[in-house]
Amino acid sequence: MTCPICAWTPDNPDYLLVYETALWRVVLAPNQCLIGRCVIHLKRHCGDLAEITPDEMLDWLTIVKTMQFALRKAFDATLFNWSCYMNLSYREATPDPHVHWWVVPRYNHAVELGALRFEDPRFGSPYDHAMRLDVASDVRRQIVERLQQAIA
């Protein structure tokens, strides 16, 4: 099985590129139940956090600061949930995990983008992984543009 993270290309219609460094890539997740929800993945294939190099960790910290700044500026995010789950890889007979992080911005207020209203009904409680909001590709592009403008 090919690692889907390693197979990512810039023309991927589901995971749009937001920002990247020499070592990490930030892509917008299709599920925008909390506006600005992104995946940050290591560009090289690595299956264990313990194998991350010191340079990769320092660069990851740059990503954390950049994305939190951008999400606050673009959408007035209140706080951030950061997580590193690789459980799905282990559902396969031969697991092939790839280190990646999720940044899930949390909001104590509604965020409007065009005619859409994004709300965080569980603010102050753990993020509900069952929440889903798949938005149209043009809306995802608008979210990416707002984040990129905030980063610039």
Can you walk through the features of this model?
This protein is an alpha+beta fold. It has a single domain, classed as HIT family, subunit A (2-Layer Sandwich). It is 24% helix and 22% strand. The chain is built from two helices and seven strands; from the N terminus they run βββαββββα. The strands form two sheets. Strands 1-2-3-5-4 form a five-stranded antiparallel beta sheet. A two-stranded antiparallel ribbon has the order 6-7. A hairpin with a 2-residue loop joins strand 6 and strand 7. Helix 1 crosses helix 2. The longest helix is centred in the middle third of the chain and has 22 residues. The N and C termini lie far apart (37 Å).
The largest sheet, given as strand count, sense and whether it forms a barrel, is:
5 strands, antiparallel
What is the averaged pLDDT score? Answer: 92
> Could you give the count of β-strands?
7
% residues in beta strands: 15-25%
CATH architecture: 2-Layer Sandwich
In helices, the fraction of residues equals 10-25%
By CATH reckoning, the class would read Alpha Beta
When the domains are counted, the total is 1
Structural class: alpha+beta
